[in-house]
Amino acid sequence: MQLIECPNCGKREEIEFHYGGQAHIAYPEDPAATTDHEWSDYLFFRDNPKGPFAERWYHGGGCRRWFNAVRDTTSYRFLAVYQPGERMPALPGTRVTR
Fold this sequence. Notes:
Layout: E1 3-6, E2 10-13, E3 17-22, H1 36-44, E4 52-59, E5 66-72, E6 78-82
Antiparallel strand pairs: 1-2, 3-4, 4-5, 5-6
C-alpha cells in the first residue's frame, strides 16, 4: 500500500484519501455571463499529462481537509504536497496550465 503525506497529519495509507481532480482551476469570475461552451469547458475538460501533474486530494480518513499535491502520473509517485492557496512548488517538468 502506498503512503501519501498529508500536510496536516503526516504520512498515511492511501485508502484514507480521495482524489479531487486537477488543482489550480479558477472558478469563473461571473458564472452568469459565461456561455454554455465556456461553462462546459470549465466543468468537464481537464489536462491529462504524462508526468508531473498538480492535483487536489481530500484526507477523509484523517483531518478531513483538502490539499494539493504534485503527482507523477506515469509512476503514481507523489513529488510534493502543499496547502490550497499556496503556490505550487517549483519542480522540474511541472507547470500550471490553467
